[in-house]
Amino acid sequence: MTTKTQARYTAKDIAVLEGLEAVRRRPGMYIGSTDQRGLHHLIYEIVDNAVDEAMAGFCTSVEILIREDGSVSVADDGRGIPVDTHPTTGKSALETVMTTLHAGGKFGSGAYTVSGGLHGVGASVVNALASHLEVEVSRGNSLYRQTFRRGDVLAEMTREMNLGETGTRICYMPDSEIFPELNYDFNVITDHFKQVAYLNRGLAIKFVSLYHTKQRKGDVERSYYFDGGISDFVRNLNRSRKTLQPAPFYFTKTVDATLVEVALQYNDSAYENIYSFANCINTEEGGTHLTGFRAGLTRAVNDYARRSKLIKDDQPNFSGEDVREGLAAIISVKITDPQFEGQTKTKLGNAEVKSIVESSLVEALSQYLEEHPNEGKQIIAKSTVNQKAREAARKARALVLRKNALDGSSLPGKLADCSERNPELSELFIVEGESAGGSAKMGRDRRFQAILPIKGKILNVEKAPRDRVIAHEEIRALIAALGANEGEEFDAEKLRYHKIIIMTDADVDGSHIRTLLLTFFFRGMEDLIRGDYLYIAQPPLYRIQVGRKVTYVYSDEEKDEVIAGINGNRKVNLQRYKGLGEMNPDQLWETTMDPDKRNLLSVVMEDGQSREEARKTFSDLMGADVAPRKRWIQANARNVKELDV
């Protein structure tokens, strides 16, 4: 280290951000982003404070209002933020909470046994990112009011007489300097509040929006209240399924200040639908509570099966996968000091929680099975079927591997692979039929584009058992081509291509094939979608030629616009593509495959409750039960141009 270097780096180079200036300087560090997700995060931070009051037993209702100008109001009937003088800051507790990071009743003060929120910075961060914020606190027969601007005090706290009710109301306008566009997604917001209501039995949540967006011009009003809590959540997950139990199994138990809540119910499907939460946070990456739940479930079912002589002595124990297929379940824990980890900080890491959940579930579920022998027999029968299907699928998979080994290749013969071996630079087009496959193979750039033709409509995996899925020729070819296995064994790191593109004809049959492929990927390779690897190609519907000028259009509306703009005296050559096979290889490359010109739709999934809605949509549209599909069509017919399921 040289003296010259030391001289350049002095105390004046150290930036000290006063108050909430750090939040305004780096908002993404506190709310994740300044796009729509961050905008929603502001609402959730304030609502989380009301939920903490509910978990502590002092709040029964929360009302959220988005006004015409996009400002937000959140009101609860909790105890109200304290207003007396804080011993450290010398200011009122209200002002301290609103202007100081990490100030609140969640940091070891004993005010809250458990609390939601990942960071505990809620109100002060919202205040910092609001152009104007007003707080009203009803407490002790008085109404206290204070206003702020971009995190600074605008007016001192005032006091007036009140009728005696208690609670807090916070109204704020997101700062346009931070959020240039107020783009609220009401479906995402209402899904979040519905989930919060499920997790807090007896809490009433009312959401009203008077704010109109480009996508939605009408007002929005939703109210949620679930007296059954997570049991109602499970009923909702299974509402389109035939269930094995007339009502969900439910138990709650507190062990060493850790509250465990579990609700579960089996259905006739071949897929598990399990959600885990810690202090009302959706732990999408799981964690110790989910590990304990899985271990406890497997142990309890196997113990009961042996004890009740419902399986033969020489029959092996059920695996975890056997007892979870066809299961809808919610596991919720509330703990004093949650430790989150993982890439998105939504994986619970508290080691002690695993054994608490496991032992509690074994005890409660074992008692339930003993007291409900009919349901117990149904669960064991379902697990036995799952076990046989899993074994049949294993043998089918092993047969495929042996056959490939004898052939000297693990790749399907119909695959036209690319020369690039770096998955990040490689893409796979999945096309239907030999004709389209031939055009795609000739039109592609073989350096980085691979082509996999498939025959006709693949198996609807929503209706089929596991062994039939694995035995299906086209699905085996898909699994082999991607190289990452499927189901619980799917490993995205082994993918041979990081861009998988579904390229089907632009007609009803093409739409159906695309839907079947999406169903398979969602059910067998969900992480493929979550990792942003899956895309849908957009081939043109028409080729319009006037003289030497050629225009490709992708809809009937676009075709009409183009033709209307052509001089009426000119000869128009209009060609409608009935399928990809009708396109010349150079046309297919130019319109659909060339990375510099093509349009691709990215297949994505929202987080949290929207994941549940995605699962329900596939179940409704692709499942064996006709009634949910009919209801969906009746509700959405006006918004769907083509539907063939």
Structure notes:
- Among the domains are: 22-54 and 71-79 and 88-158, Histidine kinase-like ATPase, C-terminal domain (Heat Shock Protein 90, 2-Layer Sandwich), CATH 3.30.565.10; 230-390, Ribosomal Protein S5, domain 2 (2-Layer Sandwich), CATH 3.30.230.10; 418-539 and 600-617, Rossmann fold, CATH 3.40.50.
- The protein has 21 helices and 23 strands.
- The longest helix has 35 residues, at 373-407.
- Mean pLDDT is 85; it is low at 1-18 and 641-645.
- It is globular.
- With 645 residues, it is α+β, with helices and mostly antiparallel strands.
- Strand 14 and strand 15 (347-348) form a beta hairpin.
- Strands 5-4-3-6-2-1-7-8 form an eight-stranded mixed beta sheet. A five-stranded mixed beta sheet has the order 9-10-13-11-12, sandwiched between helices. Strands 17-16-18-19-23 form a five-stranded mixed beta sheet, sandwiched between helices.
- Helix content is 38%, strand content 20%.
Gyration radius (Cα, Å) is 29 Å
Q: Describe the biggest sheet? A: 8 strands, mixed
Strand order in the largest sheet = 5-4-3-6-2-1-7-8
**CATH structural architecture of the domain at 230-390:** 2-Layer Sandwich
Shape: globular
Which class of the domain at 230-390 in CATH terms? Answer: Alpha Beta
Topology readout:
Layout: H1 3-8, H2 21-25, H3 28-31, H4 36-55, E1 61-66, E2 72-76, H5 93-99, H6 122-128, E3 130-139, E4 142-149, E5 152-161, E6 167-174, H7 186-199, E7 204-209, E8 220-224, H8 230-237, E9 249-255, E10 258-266, E11 273-278, E12 281-282, H9 288-307, H10 320-324, E13 327-334, E14 340-341, E15 347-348, H11 351-371, H12 373-407, E16 427-432, H13 434-443, E17 449-454, H14 466-471, H15 473-482, E18 499-503, H16 508-524, H17 526-530, E19 534-537, E20 542-546, E21 549-553, H18 556-564, E22 573-576, H19 585-593, E23 600-602, H20 609-622, H21 626-636
Parallel strand pairs: 1-7, 11-13, 16-17, 16-18, 18-19
Antiparallel strand pairs: 1-2, 2-6, 3-4, 3-6, 4-5, 7-8, 9-10, 10-13, 11-12, 14-15, 19-23, 20-21, 20-22
Helix pairs in contact: 4-6, 9-11, 13-19, 20-21
